[in-house]
Structures are given as C-alpha cells and as structure tokens.
Amino acid sequence: MQNTIGYAALNHTSPLVPFVFQRRELMAEDVQIEILFCGVCHSDIHQVRDEWGSGVFPMVPGHEIVGKVVKVGSEVSKFKAGDSVGIGCMIDSCGVCLDCLDDLEQFCNKAEFTYNSPDKHTGGTNYGGYSRQIVVNQEFVLNVSDTLDLAAVAPLLCAGITTYSPLKHWKVGKGDKVGIVGLGGLGHMGVKFAHAFGAHVVLFTTSSDKVEDAISLGANEVVVSKNHDAMALHISSFDFILNTVAASHDLDVFTALLKRDGTLCLVGLPDHPHPSSSVANLIFKRRQIAGSLIGGIKETQEMLDFCAEHNITSDIEIIPIQKINEAYERVLKNDVRYRFVIDMGTLKQSHE
Ligand code: NAP
Ligand code: ZN
Q1: Which of 31, 178, 252, 283 is the most exposed place for a label (fewest CB within 10 A)?
Q2: Which segments of 209-269 are extended strands (E)?
Q3: pLDDT of the residue at 349
Q4: For residue 121, what pLDDT band results from cuts at 50, 70 and 90?
Q5: What is the mean pLDDT of the chain?
C-alpha cells in the first residue's frame, strides 16, 4: 500500500479536511496517475452531505479527474509514463454481463464507482479524485488530448459524458429542436454538445442573468422558465429535452413542451422526488420521461475525441483545494460559471 493525501468529509455534516489514506500497490493491469485537476460535480455535494443515503465516511469525493501516468503495471499495454489521462465516475465492472458486453458498464450491477463504492481489491471503500494520486485498471483509464487545456477537460469526465450520451442515444442532430434545462456544470456542456450536433438549442433557466452566457455557449434561444407566457410559446414543439436540474421541481411544465413522441430525459438526481407528473401530458401525445446515467467507457473516449476534434472544453473557475468548502457553498447558491476545478498541485504545496 502507498500513502497518499486527499481531502475528505469525515461525516455528512463535516467540512472537507486533509486526510491521509492508502492506495493499493500496482497490480499487473494497473495505471498509477498523478492527479493534476479534479472537477467539482454537484453529485459530490449530494454524496458528501449524504443526500442520496448509504454514504460511507470518511469520503474522498471527485470523479472528474485528469492527470499524468507515473507508473504502469507489467501487463499494461494501453498507457505509458507521461501520458495525459482521465478517470470518470467508474473504475471497474464485472466485464461479462450483458451491460458490460454492450459497452454500457455504468449499468453493470457490479460496477465500481470512483468513490463512495466498495473496493473489491481491499474490501474497503474507494476514494476519489480530491487527492494526489490514484491507481486504476487500464480498462477504465481514458486518453486525453494534450491539445486541450487539461483543467478544462476534467469536467468532461462526468458533466461531459452525462450530457453527450443521452443526446447521442436519442439521436439529436440537425433539424431537431432541443431543450436543455438548467445552466450549471452539466447544462452548459449540454448546450455545447447539442449546438455542435447541429440542433436548434433552447436553454431553460431560472437565472435571468445567465441569458447572455447561454447564447455565447451555443443556445439559439433562452427561456426564463418562471415566465409562463414565454414557456407557453413553446408548447408541443420539442423533439427532446435534457433536464439537468439538481433540485426537485415541476416536470409538467416541460413535458407539455414536447411534440408527439418527444422525450424528456432526466439526468439531475435531487435528494427529494419531483412533484408527481401529469399522466395526461404523457398519454395524449405519447410523450416519454426517461433517465440516463453517465456513459460507458467506449462512449466516454468517443466524447473526449470529439471534444479534441471540435475544441470543446468546460468553462471553469480554478480553485486551490483549500477553497473547496467555500466552492460547495457557492455551487449551492448557484454562483459558479460553470464548473469549479481543483488544482490538485495546491494540495502538494501545503501538505506534503
Ligand atoms: P449544478 O452545476 O449545480 O447545476 C444545476 C443547475 O440547476 C443550476 O445551475 C440551475 O440552473 C438549476 N437549478 C438549481 N436549483 C434549481 C431549482 N431549485 N429549480 C430549478 N433549477 C434549479 O449541478 P450539476 O453538477 O450540473 O449537476 C446537476 C444534477 O445532475 C445533480 O443532481 C447531479 O447529481 C446530477 N448528475 C447526474 C449524473 C447522471 O449520470 N445522471 C451525472 C452527474 C451529475 P439555472 O440557474 O440555469 O436555473
Ligand atoms: Zn458527476
């Protein structure tokens, strides 16, 4: 075992504090990565505050990881020391079930998540990316292009794939009218991808001060969703709406905007259920409500390659790890444009 340092929540009410723990020694197929940057996802806050239940503490969050390979195991063929790489929300799965065979490891019943998930190798719990280094099987390590700003790539590992995957699954493209609900970490990536896929993009926001940003990110129109008249102009007109909101809210106002056979896909996972949805909204136009979970490793690599080709990254604010608790409060106050990314080098300076 090798000692490393990270930041952990010791329980669901404590702030994050420096925390020393062990990573496993390299096994034959493992890659050891020095973490350079880690994005701050709203899921980190949900889990650190134990809003989804079953949180295991101490918890080192972080699943938007970018770093450099420092060492590889004897059987590693895909990576070498010095490579720029990424780790997202998953670090292992069974490899043999139908989901794994379909490259949809995120749905595998034995998928191991990057943190707050049992570690089959040690019998303990996985610790995430708010740390100096991580050891991961090569099959769950992604290639990252050095042509992009590595700090701004980090959020692609969760916010990026979580929006890319449903837009691809529902075949969003030219000629489609697509809604993105919520301009946060996920939402701003959803706007960028839907725009890049050629759709007509409408951003729904509760924040009137985000209108100009949304247009510059690629939205064709912006609707402040509290404005009922503005919402009414879009009744029955959308092919697809991707809802990224992190809080419980009324879904009926969005299902009413779908065309016949249109889909409202939920990726936001609030701690409280949404108020019950109107069944009439669904059955009278055969509309659907669906959900989507991150994306498989193959599709995550496809997304990263697409981003390198089209020069797409996240809009970020870099913070030192010492500001992490403040950053959480700012996310909760909707005061982030549009993703915090931790410079993990700041952990080294102050604690090693
Ligand atoms: P975020 O950066 O905090 O963005 C959420 C956005 O939702 C806010 O920027 C805000 O946008 C809107 N919003 C917040 N409170 C609202 C309210 N009370 N009513 C209406 N809108 C509200 O969060 P994120 O990191 O993008 O994550 C969003 C959600 O997705 C979280 O629940 C997270 O756990 C989940 N998630 C799911 C997956 C998955 O695989 N399904 C993966 C990652 C994250 P406006 O100011 O524009 O209204
Ligand atoms: Zn996330």
Answers
A1: 283
A2: 221-224, 238-243, 258-266
A3: 52
A4: confident
A5: 96
CA 167 to chain centre: 14
Answer whether 46's CB lies under 8 Å from 52's CB.
yes
Count CA atoms within 13 Å of residue 172 on its CB side. 32
5: left (phi over 0), alpha (psi -120 to 50) or beta: beta
139 and 182 both lie in a single domain: no
pLDDT at residue 350 greater than cutoff 60: no
Specify whether 55 is located in the same domain as 78: yes
Q: Is the pLDDT of residue 352 over 60?
A: no
Q: Which atom of ligand 1 has the smallest separation from the CA of 245?
A: 7
* Ligand 1 site, CB within 6 A: 41-43, 46, 158-159, 162, 182-187, 205-207, 210, 244-247, 249, 267-270, 292-294, 331, 334
Q: Which ligand is nearest to the CA of 267?
A: 1
User: Which whole number is the average pLDDT over 211-231?
Assistant: 97
- Give yes or no: residues 124 and 183 share one domain: no
> Looking at ligand 1, which residue's alpha carbon is closest to its atom 29?
268
Peptide bond into 273 cis (omega under 30): no
Name the closest-CA residue to atom 4, ligand 1: 184
Residue nearest to atom 25 of ligand 1 (CA): 42
Question: Residue 188 is inside which H or E element, if any?
Answer: helix 185-196
* For ligand 1, mutation pick of 90, 156, 164, 206 (most atoms within 8 Å of CB): 206
Same structural domain for residues 54 and 31? Answer: yes
Q: At 1, is the pLDDT very low, low, confident or very high (cuts 50, 70, 90)?
A: confident
- Report the pLDDT value the prediction gives residue 54, as an integer from 0 to 100: 87
Specify the CATH number for the domain of residue 30. 3.90.180.10
The residue whose CA has the least distance to atom 1 of ligand 1 is 184
pLDDT digits (tens, 9 = 90+) for 51-63: 999 899 999 999 9
For 274, the token pair is 């949404």
CA of 281 to the centre of ligand 2 (A): 30
CA of 339 to the centre of ligand 1 (A): 11
